Amino acid sequence: QGLLLFGSRRAEQEATPEHPFGFGRERYFWSFIVALVLFTLGGLFAIYEGVHKLGEGSHAVSNAGWAIGILMLGILLEGYSFLTAVKASRPLKGRASWWGFIRHSRTPELPVVLLEDLGALTGLVLAIIGISTAAITGDSRWDAYGTIAIGVLLVVIATVLVFEMKSLLIGESALATMRSTIIEAIAGTPDVRAVIHMRTQHIGPDELLVAAKVQLSPGLETAGVAAVINRAEERVRDAVPVRCMIYLE
Predict the structure, then answer these.
(1) Tens digits of per-residue pLDDT, 159-199?
(2) Which of 93, 115, 196, 249 is most buried, with most CB under 10 Å away?
(3) pTM value > 0.85
(4) Each residue of 123-156: pLDDT tens digit?
């Protein structure tokens, strides 16, 4: 979450001649890094640790009470973080399912935190089950099995996040509802006969590039064409909740 915050701060930099569209995609990049960290330091290391424990053979688990107490504290802290992420996500999710929100959200931090916290909560429960079973049976291999299960869980979550963040880094269009809203705003402008075609791309979660080819009423002079384009751009900016860079031909 510290990396996500760092990416959010980096994205606030002003545009430069070298990066004329700004740094909005920093948020996608650092979310991608978080997914890789979960995959390597989280998932793969946990699997390695679990396999290593199995190789040591069975022995009694020591300090199981302390371990379970720490894990219970972890559940409280991760649960608070998870509920905060759920609360923050509801306005953006709308009527979509949670899976649909994670798959199609253009805001990377919330899906990452939701899945990371859900994975952490599930992993903590698996850890408690593994340690408790190992303490009851005196067989430490149950602790190892729990560790491996946590690793597999994190690898699955990280893989989902890697593919989602990769798609955002490559560049995704506005959602279908927003594309329809933009087309309606342009087409509804006086002296715009039709929108021939349009392309959109998120250059950040709250920034959208809009390029469209439009047919105007015949007979307009240069000043009239400029006025129509300006009105169309104003209508688009009034209609959508994100900042728009608009180019109309």
Answers:
(1) 999 999 999 999 899 999 999 999 999 999 999 999 999 99
(2) 115
(3) no
(4) 999 999 998 988 888 888 888 899 999 999 999 9
